[in-house]
Amino acid sequence: MAQPHIHASPADAARLQVQHGELVRVHVLGARPVIFEDVVVRVRDDFALDLHLDTDEANAVGVTPDTAAFLLRD
């Protein structure tokens, strides 16, 4: 099972105030809302902002490509 992760450009990372390798929490508002813990941020010039979830995890909570997700701050 792949670790949930976020792809972000340097500009996206700056806007979200996250850094490459940082672990964050993400609230996903699928059919069964859930908070994913320990989501790793991956920053690279050629990345567009995107949340990557394991297919089984995404299906279990009803995530589709247009499902809203929010980065949580403590």
Secondary-structure blueprint:
Layout: E1 5-8, H1 10-16, E2 23-28, E3 34-43, E4 50-52, H2 55-60, E5 69-72
Parallel strand pairs: 1-3
Antiparallel strand pairs: 1-4, 2-3, 2-5
What can you see in these coordinates?
This protein has 74 residues and is an alpha+beta fold. The protein is built from two helices and five strands; from the N terminus they run E-H-E-E-E-H-E. Strands 4-1-3-2-5 form a five-stranded mixed β-sheet. The radius of gyration is 12 Å and the shape is globular.
Q: Could you list the spans in which at least 5 consecutive residues all have pLDDT below 50?
A: none
Helical content, roughly? 10-25%
Large-scale geometry: globular
Read across the widest sheet, the strand sequence of neighbours is 4-1-3-2-5
Quick overview of this protein structure:
It is built from two helices and five strands; from the N terminus they run E-H-E-E-E-H-E. It has 74 residues and is α+β, with helices and mostly antiparallel strands.
